[in-house]
Amino acid sequence: xxxxxxASTTHRRHLxxxxxxxxxxxxxxAGFGVSLATMCLSYLTFVRIRGSISKYVKAAELHYIxx
Length: 67
Known about the structure:
Elements: H1 2-66
């Protein structure tokens, strides 16, 4: 019993770090992953829309030149 009490006292700070720090770290890592995926998807969507608009503008300019 005494040895268990000494071990608990020695490792209490380590246990507190694991109880408090680890869940916050995991939450932040998950948040970063979601943010990164959202930014990448938004960028790809923006590039695709910009390309479509660019093609439309070039076609309109060619049509305007030939009129």
